[in-house]
Write a structure and sequence with these properties.
- The chain is an alpha+beta fold and 175 residues long.
- The protein is built from five helices and eight strands, in the order βαααβββαβαβββ.
- Strands 1, 2, 3, 4, 5, 6, 7 and 8 form an eight-stranded mixed beta sheet that branches.
- β2 and β3 form a beta hairpin.
- α1 runs antiparallel to α2 and α1 packs across α3.
- The chain starts with a strand and ends in a 9-residue tail after the last strand.
Length: 175
Amino acid sequence: MAYVITAARPEDAATLGPLHLRNWLQTYPNPAAGIDESWIREHRGSSATAEGITQWREFIEATSRHPDLHFCRVVRSGTEIAGYLRGHREETVTLGPMYLLSHAQGHGLGGRMMTEFLTWAEPARIRLGVADYNERAIRFYRRHGFEIAGERYLWRGRLPTLPMIREAPSADGPG
């Protein structure tokens, strides 16, 4: 399969909203934490609704208008969107969400999307939250310079989440 990373287009929102929910349903179920399909649908199901799709479209359109403040890339395989990465800049840069469907993993696409994101974000400090039981994601983020930065917290009162930070590159670093 051939994969291409491109900027998201407004018409991609109709796919991205439901895909976001699909990714949550595949990635986050954890009976020990009380995270099941109904909890995920309660807290992320709106992404697949008309309102959620509209929010995706608005974010993508904002990315076109303000590329310095918003970042959105998708991984395409033919007509399918197989992954995405979003981020935005406020006081710090926030990365998330970032997902690849299982068949798109292991091809270096996550690293390529991350490289594009880091190029966009730098030289800022970058933060994200990751489920504490998503060990694969934690390893991935560590390979890209993120470290756990603080205590675990419960997102929406249930999802055990670790804050991770990638500090801004030092001005007196190698170069």
